[in-house]
From TrEMBL:
Superkingdom of source: Bacteria
PROSITE patterns: BCCT (PS01303)
Lineage of producing organism: Bacteria, Bacillati, Actinomycetota, Actinomycetes, Micrococcales
Protein name (database record): Glycine betaine transporter
Keywords: Cell membrane, Membrane, Transmembrane, Transmembrane helix, Transport
């Protein structure tokens, strides 16, 4: 058997496509045809047609009826229940929360720790080389812009709301059950526990969904919808009722997560207004008015579109957040804040595993259950509820990144930013309490929403910084609402990148209504309970998503290995052929292995309509030995 060396398929011939054998073995991880991909210049009609060809069932008005109506009706029912029967709603949500904490707290702790380990393992394994897009594709955004957008996703109302109060609470009035030691030791543990709540763990949750969606969207060409992340294990069933249920649960989680954040936001805005003298007292009427006003602004933003609204506001709040943190760092106890960052990082690293899996097994009782339901388990539920929104966002901005780059960027950048934020803001509260005025604890409690303004008012330019903080929370409120509304609308529209404006307005208003209803029903505790309850079923979907992602990436890795083997074989064959040809003069006996006859077949002759282009001037054929 002879083979022309110059006809060996070069590396470029694969064009980064999968090996046929791998694709046949895994039809549900194969990329869909390019003509079905949604392109930037597609019209709404073309996008709708492509979505339908992929199995998306769209109805009138550009919505997916099997997702839109169930989600809308259930969320409306919850809002009406909370408005008409606030006491009953408060009791119901708290009962659900207490049951989850008492019976499934260990489950939340276990799966979150598992997500951290899984994401890191994927990033450092051979799966990390896979591109979230076509092989060889360049990233859509530069490194700096990508990091900035990850930072924007990581900053939110929660960071501003809990930035001062959380570590201060742990160190003073509400230490974690089982902690012992001096005041300074408790302060170090308090900072480390805060790092646990806002560092690798939440971002591992976001990375699980973000990676699964980025693989489905950019690698395989599927629509932006949670269901497609499960296609590697569910197959065509994601196109039916099972996929509808998955997207409905994602909408529940996003709406309740955004509503929780909005409720926290108005509480802090009202505290800031009281601190600078704009209002004399804070009550539910003021909170509802604030929700109405800011929801109206969020609606205007979401109507304006992504480029004019969300992007513009994101740039503003990033600048304001950076200005606020740097101002506190420079105007406050600068040396102590740097020392606090370094020491807290050490305590965090020393206690990472213990705090990750601490479920309070040896601190039984109501006090332990209350602490976990108020803090760690609530956070894990909140992050899971937020995960569809943040996951879709980071997936959309990560086209062209490798899996390893994705994991590194998503885990490390927001985590480091969060550590710096809490070291500065939380450290300022600790310094004021332990080495300054000592007035951060009042009536045996720390005001989570008001402690920020206590710290700011003691600094030079404190009044100005307080106004900046109020505006910062308000803008975070708006960006959370309009971004969340857009994501929910895309899910309810089958993954359409330009969903109907009327439904964007509907979801923005509904988030505000739900936030107001839950706030009136029971305040922060009801918001926490609602977020925790919606996260439970979605956590199961996240576990399935993890399995699906690993399955899909393993097939991708095998395809790449086949391609690389072909390329190595081509290089080795070319090298051996060159060596053999060069040795013919010195070792004539090798000529018996070479067939250098000219091909005089009639089919070899081509006319002007079938001209054959030679790859090179020389054409050599190698045949096996006759021996």
């Amino acid at each position: 058997m002879t083979k022309n060396i110059d006809e060996v398929e070069p590396p470029e011939a694969d064009n980064g496509q999968h090996a046929d054998a791998v694709l046949e073995a895994s039809p549900h991880t194969a990329p869909i045809p390019v003509h079905m991909h949604i392109a930037e210049d597609d019209t709404d009609e073309q996008i709708t047609a492509k979505l339908r060809r992929q199995g998306v069932r769209l109805g009138k008005g550009g919505i997916a009826p099997a997702v839109f109506w169930p989600a809308l009706l259930v969320i409306l029912a919850v809002a009406v229940f909370a408005i008409l029967a606030p006491n009953a709603a408060d009791t119901t949500f708290n009962a659900v929360q207490n049951w989850i904490v008492a019976n499934l707290g260990w489950y939340y702790m276990l799966i979150i720790g598992g997500f951290v380990a899984l994401v890191i393992a994927i990033g450092f394994s051979k799966l990390g080389r896979i591109t979230l897009g076509n092989d060889g594709e360049k990233p859509e955004f530069g490194l700096f812009s990508w990091f900035a957008m990850l930072f924007a996703a990581g900053m939110g109302i929660g960071l501003v709301f809990y930035g001062v109060g959380e570590p201060l609470t742990y160190a003073t009035v509400d230490p974690k059950p089982g902690w012992e030691g001096s005041e300074s030791e408790l302060a170090g543990l308090a900072m480390a526990q805060t790092f646990i709540h806002w560092g690798l763990h939440p971002w591992a949750i976001y990375a699980v969904i973000g990676l699964a969606l980025a693989y489905a969207i950019h690698r395989r060409g599927r629509p932006v919808s949670i269901r497609w992340a499960l296609e590697p294990i569910l197959g065509d069933r994601v196109k039916g009722w099972l996929g509808d249920v998955i997207d409905v649960l994602a909408i529940f989680g996003t709406v309740f997560g955004v509503a929780t954040s909005l409720g926290l936001g108005v509480q802090q805005i009202s505290s800031g207004m009281k601190a600078i003298g704009l209002v004399g007292s804070v009550d539910n009427t003021l909170l509802v008015i604030l929700i109405v006003v800011i929801t109206f602004l969020a609606t205007m933003s979401v109507v304006s579109g992504l480029g004019a609204g969300i992007k513009w506001l994101s740039n503003i709040n990033l600048s304001m957040a950076g200005l606020l943190m740097i101002s506190v760092l420079l105007l406050g106890p600068t040396l102590f804040l740097f020392q606090n960052f370094v020491q807290s990082l050490g305590v965090y690293l020393a206690n990472f595993m213990n705090m990750t899996f601490d479920v309070g097994a040896f601190q039984q009782g109501e006090e332990s259950a209350t602490w976990f339901s108020s803090w760690t388990v609530f956070y894990w539920g909140w992050w899971i509820a937020w995960a569809p929104f943040v996951g879709i966002f980071i997936a959309r901005i990560s086209r062209g990144r490798t899996v390893r780059q994705f994991v590194t960027g998503v885990l490390l950048v927001p985590t480091i930013v969060g550590f710096l934020w809490f070291s500065v803001m939380g450290g300022s509260g600790l310094f004021r309490q332990f080495f300054g005025a000592g007035d951060m604890v009042q009536d045996g409690a720390v005001s989570a929403e008001g402690s920020l303004f206590q710290v700011l008012e003691a600094l030079p330019l404190g009044s100005i910084l307080s106004v900046v903080a109020i505006l910062l929370v308000a803008i975070f409120f708006i960006t959370s609402s309009d971004s969340g509304s857009l994501v929910v609308d895309m899910l309810a529209s089958g993954g359409h990148p330009n969903p109907p404006t009327w439904s964007r307005v509907l979801w923005a208003v509904l988030e505000g209504v739900l936030a107001a209803a839950l706030l009136v029903a029971g305040g922060l505790k009801t918001l926490q309970a609602g977020s925790l309850a919606t996260a439970l079923p979605f956590s199961i979907i996240m576990i399935m998503m993890s399995v699906a992602t690993i399955k899909g990436l393993r097939h991708e890795s095998r395809a790449l290995e086949v391609i690389e083997q072909k390329r190595r074989l081509a290089r080795v064959t070319e090298h051996v052929s060159d060596e053999l040809w060069g040795a013919l003069d010195e070792q004539p006996e090798l000529r018996r292995y070479v067939d250098d006859r000219i091909d005089y077949r009639v089919s070899r002759t081509r006319g002007i309509f079938g001209k054959r282009v030679e790859s090179e001037a020389k054409s050599r054929h190698v045949k096996p030995s006759d021996d």
